[in-house]
Design a protein that fits this description.
nine-stranded mixed sheet, Dihydrodipicolinate Reductase, domain 2, Rossmann fold, six-stranded parallel sheet, globular, about 400 residues, 2 domains, homotetramer
Chain lengths: ~400, ~400, ~400, ~400
């Protein structure tokens, strides 16, 4: 190996951060991918994360997943994971019902904490996490990844600079169709299983967070939720009674007087992952669609000559746009995974440089407020009344 | 004029029908255009309408309008129009506040009656028109023109043949932006003027009718309405207090258990005339956008091979599609005006051949039910309660 | 008929113009529709055309067609039509092979002449028509209807004001699919029949005219033409050898150094009537699609802030846009037929007010040049050489 | 670290493969990203690549790049890189003018070789690489990454199963706009610099490869190339005479009688990275757009009921579609980078399991043929003649 220059990785210094991930499934992989991509996504990356350990109950599966990403090792019990002193950031990618307890333990162990959305299964638990994280003085983020997509960040900037004026209306929806077929086996309709949380927690939470992120807090809600397929067969031939919601529609009113609709559905046939929103203001409008995530559609009345006004389709991929990526020149589209890449890079940056996670990142407080809104929407659906919110 | 063969129009016989139109403005012109196009739009047209008279209070303006279309003459008082014995069909294209009285008089004079939407300003008036038309035994149609667009009719056919299965969800909205700018003069924001009826009556009525037409009756509603620009300057420099609604959002539940959202807005910046709806069923979905009215977007799970499933963009312009037009070959797009051409041709056909206006045409009963729903939505917005409907 | 005000149509005066149309088929109907709509399409219409006569060889069919539009009568021999002194404008909507002789006769009879595209079947004939019309001093227009669509006219304006800078590239194509299926009966593939002229004359001529209209004259061409289905069955079971072209592709160079591609096809499966073009200039770009004819897509680099640049979708339906229509408010889409409405209104206006048909209307000179280009493209396909044009 | 299970990576065995990459710029990064993602992109990954070394002349820059991806080390001279015995695959991501010599050296050193497109700067060099690789018996791939996008692979499958019938037409183009502004500094217009290869080699090569991949070999070409901005200022204030092409248009004929257009441009204002193609066959059509890379648009006449035929927008993201990704569920869009991930995984798989690179991967023979076509197009542009190809 003539003239080979070996790189010494032991000496990168302060820019290293130890990562422990609970959960080796879809989300565990997506977060791991984000940590791996961090060093080469940015001109000046926040860190070279060190993937310390993954954790999951099935030793074979967690080992397989950990090896794919190059983790140093793995745990089968989260209580050992949260105690590992090499870990700076505890990242909870486990099932929704495992968000509360391990995250709380990690906070108590002094770890900075990321938790996938929804923050918890109940308002009470979410509140407790907010309190604990505040008291411990650790950084905390509810992983609402879509806030960090460049097109969404550009929208946020446009709104904040007043370029669409006073906001009148919001309409947001998140539609999938895994449950549309009544004959689909329960196991293929994850949101409907015993471990599933239903559609509002899974998809609606994203829409609610986006509404709050872009427009501000919500002051009243009135919702209607449905379960269309009340019984599903399991692969073992049993009948399972579906307890969770499959579709939700709601009208909301924001603190700033804007009104809106919020929808989420697991039975919107034909829609694989449609998460769209639109905002109308007195001077302009913005539209986004997750299945076309590199583009933002913008109408800015004061910024176009009168004869050529209309919605402009912006490829939000210029180096001057938010969150540019080193390996993606203009027009070379980023994939869905970049929401997490940017979100986790932001969090790592906040941890290493002691910066505030808000307003771009969703804190546990944001996660908690989304939880409150979801509970009130359910209550509204049951009582048939519009509910004024208090947090 | 060697060998010129003069056509004798006096002897076309039963296929002639006398038309009297109240109103010479936008709608009066659009209906007149429809009558003129009727003979050459269809292979076998229902009639060669005879344009007897237009009616309006301003003699100069009504004459100008009448001459453009070739009317035999004009009236300046609707009470004379409804008495003209040459008139078979009384077509009310006047301002909303003039829908009730002249239509009632025409019914009493034994005319078949078409009335622009909304049928009336109140539920009470609408109910009275339904009763009168029923007793008189005349044909009656509330002119919900969008039912007759070929793409909408194809959607209706697809639903009725069960091709999208059980219907789960509807989302419909009608968005314009004439009022988005708070500094816009009152006179340019027609819905907000003294003669204006607001956005729900003007635009929301279309969405509600479409929902009922395609899915069936609604059993409960919960709405929220807003007026964002509460004061507008008039051209004479006065301040006008805007009484009407500018934006409406609602969640509804249908008799068949489907749920939906219904929206209408006059302040949706960037939208000139966006009237879109989407329907999700257990086996497929349908989408339509009025600003792209020749196309229907269809997802039919059982009718596509698995690897190529997705929404199909259908140009609904084949001779085998509903309501084909003689002068428009496939792919040669029909304009917005064809909703009225087909609607009024349908009505003329019903009159001449004693056919039922329903289910394709909206009767006065349909107009009445839309009116009920609009009143309940307003009530719901005020009380914050979901309201169960009775008709 | 109490208080009925009868309108006297005999006395409209100078704003009347007598129309004679040769051909009662598709184009005859479309032109007649345009004349009928003229009076109510514009705030100040150029005329109330008087539909004098249609002409066609089949007496029954021409009478039926003439009656649908309210013509005074009909002829069965075009030689009588061109002599009718009541006729001011002779409008040739006959089959391509009947463009030359009757148009020449009408010119000689002193009529102003409109001829459907292509102007003739050969360059020689086209040249002769140009000469004759020039000598007779009559107004002449080759009916390239798409020039008059509001979106196209807006494009023309944008280019002329230099808003897209120096033009680099053009790409235009007109795709239909009536011939895509080799088993389709000859009679259903009109372009391939004995009376058919092939795809270049039928569709390619439109693209070539649009290229010249928007960019300027072409200086060299290199083309390739194909007939994919060389034999078709007729309904009577015979084999027909297809002589005409079915698909054409070409690269062209404009006088102003821009380069481009021009395509036309009758075998582009899935395309009913796709006529799209795009123009790239140093400061902006324009795109149009006939199947979405109310919109123009515009990128104007100097007219948008840097972070929100992209193609803007303009609904070219504002009253301030070119060729607004009285019965179509903003966002209420015009149909395909309006190309002819505006084209023929322009011509009538030129006739009545002695205005030049060019540059907005295509004169016979334009029709002739398109014919030259088509012949050179065919020659180029055969010889495999790029050909420099002379006119 | 209680109960921590450390992973032993030394013993993964045959599924490891050593990678050496020449070039640390855009392409070097993109290929490195692909190797990093390989293990967790697939249910059963072809290998866990070991990133041995990057190579580049600037030691500081190559070290920085190598560290971001975790390479063991780096070289500053490619002659040492090709000799490193730990390297199984030599991956040439250097500038176009460095494709030939190092690749040839690597072949001679017995390495399996990947080379970015275009394979070489001349036909002669390309031919020599084909010969050398064949003689050495190493695996070789020209990195035409777009072949491996799931939507493109689905298109290939559809064509091969005859679902679109006999192919009539192809139209492909690759448009960017880095050079559209004549005042843009030379350094920002990479294709125009001394090291730049022009647009045909940079972008046109992709279109030509795609045409050959999906339709088959080309038998004749006729092209036209232009340089619109003949002089550009450099940042140091000098004038640079641009020698390379900026825009190319061509008509081609395929061996199977299909015809097509091929375009590439660096001055198509408004287009950041538009690489679209369309194929029309006797039974269906396919359309693709790189800026919407997760979708394929398909028209399959025999596979849809007559009333609902049209282009279907397929989200090619199902587990049953080609090249599914473990971390991307349906509707969760893959980014542009996955072309390389799948291409390089394919190559690694071919190397480790001795499988043929063709037909899904482009071999050096494919790279050579693309080179021939590009040279003939240039020749055709200069001579004005259609050229019959021989390879």
């Amino acid at each position: 190996m003539k003239q080979f220059n070996e790189i010494d990785y032991t000496n990168i210094g302060a820019k290293r951060v130890g990562i422990g991930v609970l959960g080796y499934g879809f989300m565990g992989k997506v977060h791991s991918n984000a940590y791996l991509k961090m060093p080469y996504t940015y001109t000046d990356p926040p860190a070279h994360p060190v993937l310390i350990a993954m954790c999951g109950r099935d030793a074979g599966k967690v080992k397989d997943s950990a090896m794919r990403f190059g983790y140093k090792g793995y745990y089968t019990d989260w209580q050992h994971l949260v105690e590992d002193p090499r870990i700076d950031i505890f990242d909870n990618c486990a099932n929704d019902y495992l968000h509360f307890e391990p995250t709380l333990a990690a906070i108590k162990a002094g770890k900075h904490v990321v938790c996938e959305k929804p923050l918890a299964k109940t308002v009470k638990e979410a509140k407790q996490l907010v309190k604990a994280a505040g008291e411990a003085g650790v950084k905390h983020m509810t992983c609402f990844n879509y806030r960090f997509l460049p097109a969404v960040r550009l929208a946020k900037d446009i709104i904040e600079r007043g370029r669409i004026g006073t906001i009148y209306q919001f309409r947001g929806r998140y539609l999938q169709h895994s449950g549309h077929n009544p004959d689909e086996m329960l196991e293929n309709v994850k949101y409907a299983t015993v471990k599933g949380s239903g559609i509002m927690l899974g998809l609606g939470s994203h829409v609610i967070d986006m509404a709050r992120f872009l427009i501000g807090d919500i002051k009243s809600v009135c919702g209607l939720s449905k379960t269309f397929v009340k019984t599903r067969k399991t692969m073992s031939g049993k009948n399972h009674h579906v307890e969770v919601d499959e579709a939700n529609v709601a009208v909301v009113e924001f603190e700033n007087e804007a009104i809106g609709t919020i929808e989420s559905s697991g039975v919107s046939t034909g829609h694989k992952n449609q998460n769209t929103w639109e905002i109308n203001g007195s001077k302009g409008s913005l539209m986004f669609d997750l299945e076309d995530l590199n583009h933002l559609y913008v109408y800015l009345e004061d910024e176009q000559n009168e004869d050529v006004r209309g919605f402009t389709k912006i490829s939000v991929t210029e180096p001057s746009h938010p969150n540019p990526c080193l390996i993606l020149p203009r027009g070379h589209n980023a994939g869905w995974e970049y929401g997490h890449v940017h979100a986790l890079s932001h969090f790592v940056n906040c941890v290493l440089n002691d910066l505030p996670v808000a307003p771009y990142g969703a804190t546990f407080e944001d996660g908690y407020r989304v939880q409150v809104i979801m509970e009130r929407l359910k209550e509204s659906s049951e009582t048939g009344r519009r509910i004024q919110l208090t947090f």
